[in-house]
Amino acid sequence: MTARRGLYVLAGALLLIGFVVLGLSVDRRPPPVDVALADTFRGQYTRPLGQVADLVTNVLGPVLPFALGAVLVLIALRRRELTALCVKLAVVLVLCRLTSLIAKPLFYRDRPRVFPDPSYPSGHVVAVACTGFVVVLLCAWTRPHLTRLTITIAVAATLVGALCRIVLGVHWLTDTAGSVLAVGGVGLISATALGLLPRPEDPA
Q1: Do the Cβ atoms of 187 and 154 come closer than 8 Å?
Q2: What stretches pass through the bilayer (predicted)?
Q3: CA 116 and chain centroid, separation
């Protein structure tokens, strides 16, 4: 168990290092892949594809952590034996969500088009990723048989949310990648520190 905890913490630390290194490397000049994607979708935010992307990000965005927080409160109120679990999950959710709020002013990267607030990492993608991460933990502890399905849905939602932000021209590809790295890093470290990873039933 101790070895697995160490591996989770190490993985989280490596993800956070990757997040910082990526942020520093793209801070001043976007890499070719960023430029190519931005050029591909330039101006789409005013067209039907952009309108669809905008609608999607109204759902796959900052509203999700608040919705999940409300769900955790309801679960804690209805099933008192899960109160401690819900509190720990809420802490992980808040810490992961804070990554974009804290990091944006530190990197202060310009967006592909004129838009308020810095670009790295994407707050929308952080919101989707941290919600998915915590939902996976919730299922792992309460509905283990749904964990794989939940992981698939969480990954798909994060990818769709990232693509929509790129289509809208408000984020570079590396902004979205950085979001995933940040959430993964903070999520693994905080969940391990709170005893959510690994589960007691997990193989050693």
Answers
A1: no
A2: 7-26, 55-77, 84-103, 123-142, 149-173, 179-197
A3: 21
Place of tokens 């992961």: 96
Q: How long a stretch of residues is the chain?
A: 204
Integer Cα distance of 82 and 104 in angstroms: 34
The residue written with tokens 């952080």 in the block is: 126
Contact 50, 164 (CB under 8 A): no
Rounded to whole angstroms, the Cα distance separating 108 from 129 reads 21
Q: Is the overall model pTM greater than 0.90, yes or no?
A: yes
Which residues in the chain show pLDDT less than 70? Answer: 1, 200, 202-204
Q: pLDDT digits over 146-181, tens only?
A: 999 999 999 999 999 999 999 999 999 999 999 999
Q: How far apart are CA 186 and CA 164, in angstroms?
A: 24
Q: Where are the domains of the chain?
A: 2-193
CA distance 177 to 31: 13
Q: Please identify, in words, the CATH class of the domain defined by 2-193.
A: mainly alpha
Residue type, 143: R
**Residues near 190 by Cβ (< 8 Å), separated by ≥ 6?**
91, 92, 95, 96
The two tokens of residue 79 are: 């099933």
